[in-house]
Specification:
The chain has 156 residues and is mainly alpha-helical. The chain is built from seven helices and two strands; from the N terminus they run ααββααααα. A two-stranded antiparallel ribbon has the order 1-2.
């Protein structure tokens, strides 16, 4: 593993852990599937932090328009313990449908439910620049070492 790859692996693992901590701090965990979906992919000098596709909704909310899938909301109702509290009053599937319909009509503003900036408070431009700087220093050292080796071989 190159030094650059090691730096990227360490930094992106740190980002992943901090995102999970922020996710919990904001009270966003229901099933924990989003945190479980976080993974780091490193290939050469490229790194990506991957997550479930609904991470964008956790960050920004959801615009009105298309109704989200009721099945996902049913699971959320169960994971949050709401199902036990509504037993006998309304079925989980009916409540999930009503919630999905309301989100489809009005959207969902994340700011009303625990705050926003799940991702953007951790993955900041400053943080990315620090990672770039660390990788740049490593690459500069590698380049300098190779040039020095080459110059030394010419003198021999």
């Amino acid at each position: 593993m190159s030094n650059t790859t090691a730096i990227l692996a360490k930094e992106f693992a740190s980002l992943k852990n901090e995102l999970i901590a922020k996710y919990d701090e904001l009270g966003m965990r229901a099933s924990g599937q989003w945190a479980d979906s976080l993974s780091v992919a490193i290939e050469g000098n490229n790194a990506e932090l991957l997550h479930a596709e609904y991470g964008e909704q956790l960050e920004y909310g959801r615009k009105p328009g298309k109704q989200p899938p009721s099945e996902a909301i049913e699971q959320w109702i169960k994971d949050k313990g709401i199902a036990a509290r509504i037993e006998g009053n309304i079925s989980v599937s009916s409540l999930a449908y009503l919630i999905a319909r309301k989100i489809g009509r009005e959207g969902w503003n994340r700011q009303q439910y625990g705050g926003t900036k799940l991702i953007s408070s951790v993955v900041t431009p400053e943080r990315i620049q620090k990672i770039i700087d660390k990788v740049g220093e490593s690459e500069l050292k590698n380049f300098t070492d190779k040039i020095s080796e080459y110059l030394n071989s010419l003198q021999a």
